[in-house]
Queue: 2 jobs
Job 1
Amino acid sequence: MQTGELIGSGRSADVFALDDDWVLRRYRADRDAAREAAVMTYLARHGYPVPHVREPAMGQGRDRLPRTDLVLQRLHGPSMRQALRQDEVTPAEVGTTLADLLSRLHHVPPRAPGSPGDRVLHLDLHPDNVMLTGNGPVVIDWHNTLEGPPGVDWGMSALILAEVALRPGDWTDKARGALGALLRRLPRLAPDVVLDATDTGCLTQARNWRALDPATGEDGTPVLDDAVSLVLALLPPSPP
Ligand SMILES: Nc1ncnc2c1ncn2[C@@H]1O[C@H](COP(=O)(O)OP(=O)(O)O)[C@@H](O)[C@H]1O
Ligand SMILES: [Mg+2]
């Protein structure tokens, strides 16, 4: 497929404009995008804010696209990270928006029968994977999506913010503010979720997923442990 201008690039994919309405998202490594395409289509059908996935025209099966490619609705607007950098949104708004997006996602009925309570999870829902469009926030980058307990998704978003909050630099205060706001929303939006760091706790599961992420690396383990401690320190006390 003829690609246009490169308009975005993250850790795993490049995104090219096709026209004003569509983009081509292409994995740089040989990864199959079919699974996330199916999840995004399912979520869109349930009213969840994801970019629409363009079905190939009649007679052109998805197999006509390289397995690394997806054609997605083009979103117009900054990522929530860009908006935070420019002070167009506050850290509290970022945390609240992430919390609302997590809660809405976990209210979508599960796709596949699994353990009771399992839901579609994003597992990488952070400010760079939310685009602020004229129609509200839209969640991109579904490459980690799985079904599982919602608490792991909350734990993952919290840990990612905590890791940034622990890194000295421009983002420290903003990330900490966003993390505090996210955790303050948790008891009301997801009263059943317990973010605990016991052996089988949601925070431990999220931590273990993060440890497997190649970007974390072996020397990232102490940072992850500190991030777990920061999340626990900022959790609102549970009601008596
Ligand atoms: N549907 C889209 N419309 C417009 N820009 C997009 C779209 N999807 C992604 N982008 C841009 O491309 C960047 C990388 O996309 P993303 O799906 O997050 O890939 P990665 O896995 O590499 O992080 C995003 O930060 C955003 O700037
Ligand atoms: Mg991304």
Job 2
Amino acid sequence: MHLSGKKILLGVTGGIAAYKSVELLRLLQRQGAEVRVAMTPAATKFVGSLTFASLSGCPVYLQDGVPEARPFSHIDFPRWADLFIVAPCTANTLGKMACGIADDPVSLCFMTSLGEKWIVPAMNTAMYLSPAVQENMERLRSFPGVRFVEAASGKLACGESGVGRFPEPEEIVQTLLAAEESQTVTSNGKRVLITGGRTEEPIDPVRYISNRSSGKTAAALARAFRDAGYLVTLVHGPMEAEIPSGITSVFTRSAREMHTEVLARFPESDAVIHCAAVADYRPKTAANEKIKDSRGALTLELEANPHIFRDTAANKKAGQVIIGFALETEAPEKHALEKLKKSGADLIVLNTPVESSGGFGKDSVSFALLAAGENAPPLHLGKKSELAAEILSFVNRKLGVKNA
Ligand SMILES: Cc1cc2nc3c(=O)[nH]c(=O)nc-3n(C[C@H](O)[C@H](O)[C@H](O)COP(=O)(O)O)c2cc1C
């Protein structure tokens, strides 16, 4: 099943076809997808949110509340999904999404989701053919990662006939399956799991411990492997760099969340590249309320986070390639070589945070690829895209994939 394990967020808006989204949800689940639902207030007048909550087994994201009481759940919720589909999509929601209005759960999820996005418009023919709707659809088609399941023609709920009908749920699923299939055909069949960005370890609901990683190297890696035909999954924390299209992105915030997501995907991956800047430590307890300023000294007790790199390297299967990053400020080669030896990884990418020569947030970096059983090359300055190309070439060699 090609949708097996796929995380799909179904956005339901206030059209007469909203009741058909119930069937769509069931069909997607039957294909092995995990489905969650977001609804506009108008949609809830057509179908009760309880129906979707019961069938999806998850609270529905509604106007008056987000399913998980977390400070950034309006961002986390859509980023959980690999794929966001708005079905049915009203003329009104089309207009909002095209113009950057995000005042309800569906248009907000559209703006913040990072995976592939599908739109299934459904409305009366006059609405569908109106210049505003046509223009909005045209605009949306030009957005990166946005695709349409086109409206069907035929008898409409209002009694008229014409274009604007909601396609049969089965047809929608077939379109998604065909799109998945075509991605698989162009791929080389190898799966690479990349971690990127930084983690955030909560101190209280508004503060956290983090670092300055921009995620640029991870984005460059994801692009390079995608373009080489790999099936790329990027498990990432917050990052400034744009997430490339055509990959599966999984958003995590803390090191523990990232650990869970990586370990779950690790067994099916041919190569794992640990590029994320994961916090080694987290506050032992995160306060439930914002810590008040008492002007006195404040001591934070820290405890160690799970070790994502070590836990994958230690369980490496034959033929799997594991790559770690080492950011060192002191005796860099010595420490990176120790890390390579101790972990059992295939490659350590040594990099140093020298401001003048690139590093955090810059496009270039000072790096050296230290491979097991090979002589260590000296540190040299290169673009992050060049670093990605060198890593790609190493993985290709290990997996027996021809360089493009
Ligand atoms: C009975 C009824 C059926 C409707 N069906 C549709 C429809 O199929 N498509 C559409 O774009 N709007 C339809 N509308 C209009 C929307 O409900 C209205 O524009 C609403 O504001 C959409 O809100 P939303 O986009 O936030 O869900 C219908 C309205 C009513 C009263």
